[in-house]
Amino acid sequence: MTDRDLIGADWRKSTRSGGGNDCVEVADNLPRIVAVRDTKNRDGGTLIFTRGQWSEFLAGVKDGEFDRA
């Protein structure tokens, strides 16, 4: 994966972030991948997921799989 693969990425923050900088940004408009980066350090690296991996993660979030007890 290169920076070229991220050309055209439309980065967005969750509406639940409250407009702050302590969150992550997601670009899910890319052809085959979903990219995630830290808002505080946008040049610090990007996590890349397949669309399937991202869908599984979102399903886990919705099902409470990652909720703290």
TrEMBL record:
InterPro entries: DUF397 (IPR007278). Residues 9-62 form the DUF397 domain. It comes from the Bacteria. This is Uncharacterized protein DUF397.
